[in-house]
Amino acid sequence: LEAWDGPALLxxxxxxxxxxxxxxxxxxxxxxxxxKEGTVYMMSETGVVPNLAEEDIVxxxxxxxxxxxxxxxxxxxxxxxxxxxxxxxSRHPYGEWIERQRKDIEKTEFPDDRLYDDKTATFxxxxxxWSLEDIGMQIADMAGSAKETTYSMGxxxxxxxxxxxxxxxxxxxxxxxxxVTNPPIDPL
Length: 188
Description:
alpha+beta
């Protein structure tokens, strides 16, 4: 998942276990309850399971951003996020591998002199579809703060094919993403 992806809860099973994982934004509600008999209920909101009495519930929780739960269908064992990730982390010596393999990159100094004159730079920017808005909002932001510009989810720009202004070829190809319909997961 990418930072701009919409709310997602993935419910999965391989026939031996069943689990759920929430995306790293954590915007989708995902709650669970465990009753006295060891049955695990997963739902969008609390109170959607009829006849599940509050006094029968022994554990409640919710998935936070990037968290997961899992139930072993053979043994009935419930694993929370910390236990799952601790088991995975203990399988290999990841810390040692990082310590041994990490390469530190020295900061590069850049010359103050311009590489291209105005005419060449403007031609290159136009060729690659950079507008003054792109340069002012993205390039200036990245150059000034050494970070990628953050935008809100959604794109309300009209399709290039319907525009009266010329666009670079790649603007004619649009990808739709994060169209959230919030289907109920409660029957799962």
